[in-house]
Every structure is written in C-alpha cells, then in structure tokens.
C-alpha cells in the first residue's frame, strides 16, 4: 500500500458529490436506496442458506440413510425406519480392531508430536532472523507436502534403510512428521504472548533452569498444549492418504471405512458415520462453549 | 541459541535441539532425500543392491514421458486440481467476507461453529456422503429426473465430475479459514471510506478487500491445490477406472506393480508439481513463505 494507484484516484474523483448535511449523507451511504438494500440483503440471505445447505445436507442425507431399512445405503426409496445397522456395526470385530489401532496410533502420534512440537517452538523462539526463517521453512514444509508423499518417503526410508516394514510404528512416524508442524504452530502462537521477562526474573531470583521451565514456561503453554493434543489426535484419527502407504497389514478406522465403501458396502458404514459425526458435533460444541467462557472477563 | 542456553541451561537446550534435529532430519528431510535417490535407481532384487547393476538412471522418469495414458492422467490431475481450487475459491469468498466483515454479535459466533463442525468430520465420511448423493438411485439423480432433465438415472461416478464435486466439498474449509483470517484483519473503515467515496461493490472488492487478503488467498489456494492433487481418498471413492487420478497410479506402482523406484519417481514429480504451484502463487500474490501457514 505504498503507491496510490490511478484507479484509486479515479474512485476519489468520482466521489465529488454535492455537499449535503451530515445526517442525509450518512443515511445515503449506509443504504443507497431501500430497494437496492433489500435486494442485497435478500441475495446475502439466499447465498447463506445455499452455502450452509451445501455444507450440511450431504452429511444429513448420509446420516438419514442409516435408518432406512434397505440393504444399501440410500434414502430413496424409504423402506421403513430401522436401527438394526447399529447392531450390525457393533458386532463387527474388524471395526473394533480398526478402532483400537486408531486409538494406539493417535496416542503414539500425540506422544511424539507434542514434545517435539514444543521443542520446535522453543527453538524457533530462541533463533534469530535468518536461521529462524530457514528452520521455520523446513518445519512447515511437511504441512505443504501432499500426504501420499509423506507416506511414501517414510515407507522407503524405514523399510529399505532399516528393514522396518509398514505397520503401527511407521504409521505413527509418518503421521507425526507433519502433525508436529501443527503442534509447533499452535505453541508458537501462544509463545507470542509470552513475556520472556518472567523467565529472566525467575533466573535472577535464583531459580534453576529446570524450575524455570517447569514452573513458568510449561504452565504458560498449558492451554495450547491441551488444544494441540486434541488437534494432533484428531488429525491422526482422520488421516487416510499418508496412512494408506505405511499401514502395512494394520488397519485404522478411517482405512476401514474406506475399504468398506469400496467393497461390501452396507448401511453399517453410515451407522459408524452417525456415531463419529455425533461425537464431533458434541465435541465441537463443548469446545466452542468453553472457549467462549474463557474469553469472557 | 544463546538465549535458549541462558534461559533453560544446557541439558534442556540439548533435549530441545535433539528433538528438533530428530524431527527435521530423521523424520522429514532424510526420508525425502532417500525417496529422490531411490527414484533414480532401477528396480532391483535385494541381493542385487550394491552390485554393478545399482546405478543412477533416468529410466523411471522416461516411463512417464513415454506412457501416453499416465501422461494424460498427470495433466488431467493438474487441470482438475486447478479447477477445484478455483471453484472452491469462488464458493468460499462470499462466506469468508460475510463472516469477517458483515456478520455481527452472536450470529457471527453461530456461523463460526457451524463452519467448524464439518471441518472435524472425517474426510472419508465427507466423501462418502457424496458417494450416496451421486449414486444411481441417489437424491441428485432423483431430483434431475423429477425436474424432467434426464429420463434415465445417469452414472455420476463415471467421469471426473463426481471427483471434482467431491473435492470441492471435502476441501472447502481449507479455503474458508485462511480467507476469513486474512479478511478479518481488514479495518472496516477502509471499506466504509471506499463506499463513501462512491466506489462500486465490485471495485471495493477488487481494490480494497482482495489486495488486503492476498496472503489468505495464496494460503487457501496452495492448501486446496495440494490437497486436491495429492488426494487419494476422493478419486478412490468417487472415481471409476476411467477417471483415475495421478495418486492412484503412484499407489499401483507401489502395491500392485511392486516397482518402488518407479513409484518414487512419480511421487517426486507430484512433489515438484506442488512446489511449482506454491512458487507460482507466492509470485502471483507477491507474498513470502513466512506469511503462509500461519
């Protein structure tokens, strides 16, 4: 915004309206004419309805298909209401195995990504200009890399160099390699509001380095650590593109869903979808409410 | 570095540096380098590795050049990903602007929650929802027949249309949030001023809102393009053998062809494509990498 473009000057020149009392001018600019204003707000409302319908209708239809008494997941024709697909789902051993794998992988990813992400944020905070930029670029690069490539490179590296085949362990390593980036960004955002004077003061007053870290740095970062853990776990839980290449013979819940859709599709998949969406909606609502309350003075 | 040492002492600093080195070197950089090295080697049996057969070659890259089908799919993936990115931008721009500059009070908060919820629903489930919508007896077909536009149900999962529709839906929120964040920091007085001075609505957007939102637009486009070009889930679920995606060929080299060096070469080409797109966006919008991914 350093130069004044000719276009802007033209816009300024166009605006040489005859001078009017302040009140009428205000009203005119707020709403050019009542009809145009009504049209605009009508269009806005129409777009909003359309946008949110687009966002939610597909999910609603998928959920509704769970309750249709049909062998295939569909809403048309409606053959009667049933909840039997929940029962089918809960009896599916493969689903439980996949869920268990997902939980282990998620916990593993949090265990790797959280300390590493915090260390990365602390390191970046302690580096200066040039070095900081280079390290930062390296650290965010996995976030800008397609997931399949992260999976492939991890698979080749560990399998060919160390004879480690795909499986839960490689899945954790592959997912953590980019999820750590998210943790780092979240911790870094919190760090920006940190007053380093606190640490200096503690040191001056004779605290040890470990005490400074445990009693000052960590407690300050705590809220972002909780949020980052949740995000890291969810990212891991829903990951498909990376996991597909490093999973070996293990199956996570997301991989299970995809394979069910591609082979042997029944509304039991929809039942799983309803459960996952339900948990998501409740979780998001609770998180949002708590965040609101925290923001209130 | 001295700052770290002074604040946390050498044992903690050593832990911090080691963790970062482990992440950046062992988990990120080395695997990528090994993959690139691998892509320049022939597909060998384990006992042949290190023998005179183990030489660098461009053969794996020539495969793509000489295989017309793969080449066509590669270019299809590029233009379709560009299309997905563009459509997503057009769909998301108004809602991001509305949320950032127009909505006020509790309504804005409600919209924010409504936007966040589908973001946390699994990508596979979001895609599966479209699987049902697009199926032969699905709501879209029924609606089109109800309107009399088609007589027979059509297979929407046959061509690239289904994949593109599914991708726009799956990645929409990766566009909304960067746009929203960028637009939110725009002082509303600037828009008021432009309006008071008589600028038309398109001109306000072209001269004030879009220039201000450049970093957000660049971030959103980069994320969407990267996700689209690198997507395996959406084409696998919503595509057909006739509408294959470049990632599906890569997958087949690994797990059906059993030719990992060949798959690595294709993967590296995909990586270069995404890198090229990032550089293009940074140049086009004149932003730095530091402004991205915030």
Q: Can you describe this structure?
A:
The complex is a heterodimer of chains A (297) and B (294). Chain A has 297 residues and is mainly α. Chain A has a domain at 94-249: MetI-like fold, CATH 1.10.3720.10. Chain A is built from 13 helices and no strands. In chain A, helix 3 packs across helix 13 (268-295), helix 7 (147-162) crosses helix 8 (168-191) and helix 8 (168-191) crosses helix 10 (209-238). Chain A is globular and about 75 Å long. With 294 residues, chain B is mostly helical. Chain B is built from twelve helices and no strands. Classes of the chains: A mainly alpha (297), B mainly alpha (294). At the A-B interface, helix 1, helix 3, helix 5, helix 6 and helix 7 of A face helix 1, helix 3, helix 4, helix 5 and helix 8 of B. Chain A: It is found in: Cell membrane. Chain A: The chain crosses the membrane at residues 46-67, 98-124, 136-158, 164-188, 218-237, 268-287. Chain A: This is Spermidine/putrescine transport system permease protein. Chain A: InterPro entries: Bact_Polyamine_Transport (IPR051789), MetI-like (IPR000515), MetI-like_sf (IPR035906).
Topology:
The complex is a heterodimer of chains A (297) and B (294).
Chain A (H helix, E strand, L loop, with lengths): L5 H9 L7 H9 L3 H33 L17 H7 L2 H34 L2 H12 L6 H16 L5 H24 L4 H9 L4 H30 L4 H4 L6 H10 L5 H28 L2
Chain B lengths: L1 H38 L19 H8 L1 H35 L2 H16 L2 H12 L4 H8 L14 H24 L3 H9 L4 H29 L3 H6 L7 H10 L4 H25 L10
Helix pairs in contact in B: 1-12, 2-12, 3-7, 3-9, 5-7, 7-9, 8-9, 9-12, 11-12
């Amino acid at each position: 915004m350093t130069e004044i473009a000719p276009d802007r000057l033209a816009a300024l020149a166009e605006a040489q309206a005859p001078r009017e009392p302040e009140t009428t001018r205000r009203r005119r600019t707020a709403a050019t004419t009542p009809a145009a204003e009504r049209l605009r707000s009508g269009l806005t409302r129409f777009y909003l309805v359309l946008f949110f319908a687009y966002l939610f209708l597909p999910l609603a239809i998928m959920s509704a298909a769970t309750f249709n008494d049909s062998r295939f997941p569909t809403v048309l024709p409606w053959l009667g209401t049933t909840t039997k697909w929940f029962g089918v789902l809960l009896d599916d051993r493969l689903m439980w195995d996949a869920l268990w794998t997902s939980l282990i992988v998620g916990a593993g990813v949090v265990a790797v990504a959280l300390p590493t992400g915090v260390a990365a944020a602390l390191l970046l905070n302690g580096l200066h200009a040039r070095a900081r930029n280079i390290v930062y670029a390296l650290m965010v690069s996995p976030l800008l890399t397609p997931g399949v490539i992260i999976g492939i490179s991890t698979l080749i590296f560990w399998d060919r160099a160390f004879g480690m085949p795909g499986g839960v362990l490689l899945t954790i390593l592959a997912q953590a390699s980019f999820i750590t980036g998210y943790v780092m960004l979240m911790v870094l955002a919190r760090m920006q509001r940190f007053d380093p004077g606190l640490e200096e003061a503690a040191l001056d007053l004779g605290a040890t380095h470990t005490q400074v870290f445990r009693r000052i740095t960590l407690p300050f970062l705590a809220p972002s650590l909780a949020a980052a853990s949740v995000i890291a776990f969810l990212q891991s839980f829903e990951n498909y593109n990376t996991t597909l290449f490093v999973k070996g013979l293990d199956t996570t819940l997301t991989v299970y869903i995809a394979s069910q859709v591609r082979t042997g599709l029944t509304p039991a998949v929809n039942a799983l979808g309803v459960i996952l969406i339900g948990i998501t909606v409740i979780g998001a609502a609770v998180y949002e409410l708590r965040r609101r309350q925290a923001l209130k003075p | 570095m001295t700052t770290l040492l002074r604040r946390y002492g050498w044992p903690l600093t050593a832990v911090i540096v080691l963790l970062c080195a482990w992440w950046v070197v062992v988990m990120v950089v080395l695997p990528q380098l090994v993959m690139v090295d691998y892509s320049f080697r022939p597909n060998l049996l384990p006992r042949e590795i290190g023998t005179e057969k183990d030489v660098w070659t461009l053969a794996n890259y020539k495969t793509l050049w000489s295989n017309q089908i793969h080449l066509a799919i590669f270019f299809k993936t590029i233009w379709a990903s560009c299309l997905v990115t563009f459509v997503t931008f057009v769909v998301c721009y108004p809602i991001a602007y509305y949320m950032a500059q127009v909505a006020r009070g509790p309504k804005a908060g409600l919209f924010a929650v409504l936007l966040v919820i589908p973001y946390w629903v699994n990508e596979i489930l979001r895609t599966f929802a479209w699987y049902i919508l697009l199926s032969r007896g699905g709501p879209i077909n029924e609606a089109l027949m109800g309107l009399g536009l088609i007589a027979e149900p059509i297979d929407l999962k046959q061509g690239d249309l289904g994949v593109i529709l599914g991708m726009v839906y799956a990645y929409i929120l990766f566009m909304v949030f960067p746009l929203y964040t960028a637009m939110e920091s725009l002082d509303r007085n600037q828009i008021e001023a432009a309006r008071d001075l008589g600028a038309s609505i398109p001109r306000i957007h072209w001269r004030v809102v879009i220039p201000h939102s450049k970093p957000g637009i660049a971030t959103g486009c980069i994320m969407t393009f990267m996700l689209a070009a690198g997507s395996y889930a959406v084409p696998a679920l919503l595509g057909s053998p006739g509408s294959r995606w470049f990632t599906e060929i890569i997958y087949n080299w690994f797990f059906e062809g059993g030719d990992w060096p060949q798959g690595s070469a294709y993967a590296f080409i995909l990586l270069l494509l995404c890198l090229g797109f990032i550089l293009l966006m940074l140049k086009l919008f004149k932003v730095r990498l530091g402004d991205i991914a915030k």
